[in-house]
Design goal:
This is 2OG-Fe(II) oxygenase. It comes from Hyphococcus lacteus. Belongs to the iron/ascorbate-dependent oxidoreductase family. Pfam families: Oxygenase-NA (PF09859). The structure is a single chain. With about 230 residues, this protein is an alpha+beta fold. It contains six helices and 15 strands. A seven-stranded antiparallel β-sheet has the order 1-11-7-15-5-4-2. Strands 3, 6, 9, 10, 12 and 13 form a six-stranded antiparallel β-sheet that branches. It has a two-stranded antiparallel ribbon with strand order 8-14. A hairpin with a 6-residue loop joins strand 9 and strand 10. The longest helix is centred in the middle third of the chain and has 22 residues.
Length: about 230
Amino acid sequence: MSGDLPSRIADIDWARVGGNLRDNGWASLGRVLSDDECTALIKGYDAPDRYRSTVAMRRHGFGEGEYRYYAYPLPPLIADLRTQLYARVVPIARTWTARDYPADHAGYQKQCAARGQTRSTPLILKYGKGDHNRLHQDLYGDEVFPIQIAILLSQPGKDFDGGEFVMTEQSPRKQSRAMVAPLEKGFAIAFAVNERPVEGARGIYKVKMRHGVSEIRSGSRYCLGIIFHDAI
């Protein structure tokens, strides 16, 4: 793919992204990372000095598989993704919450720190055959940025089968709606962390969102998660 990371992010149709997030709670960003960048991140999974902790999902009832949180200072690519994507989604977040979030991520991190949330949250997830991730929300304290990003690092149909990125939406007095986001290697989606606003006949109400990954039928699946709020 052509162009450096800032150019790729700038070329995304952010008006379309905002509309899709508003209507469905998630939006495709298209291709964000090159094959080489995806491969480098996967190879870095076994470099323990990059991470602050490893979580075995079974131990906590989260599913099967594991993930690792990057340590501060973040690797340059992860730091760049977090900083530049934040700048693009913060106008959407302001609309959702009527809150004046800082324009830059460094300013937002100060707000997290003021609530005792100082630990990094960007992570890389690793799944093998039979692994899955139960529906959940990535909440790490009282301070929650309403949108996050997932970038698939492996190629469906080649590196793995199964492992669809799934979401559910729970509206008041309605049954849950299930959604599946199609992803290819290097492609990203933005989605609601916790809830999204919906305009109804009596004004704005909020619907709960959860996300997860269906069972991997074969192969290995890696995914990068960019969460903007820090953890306690």
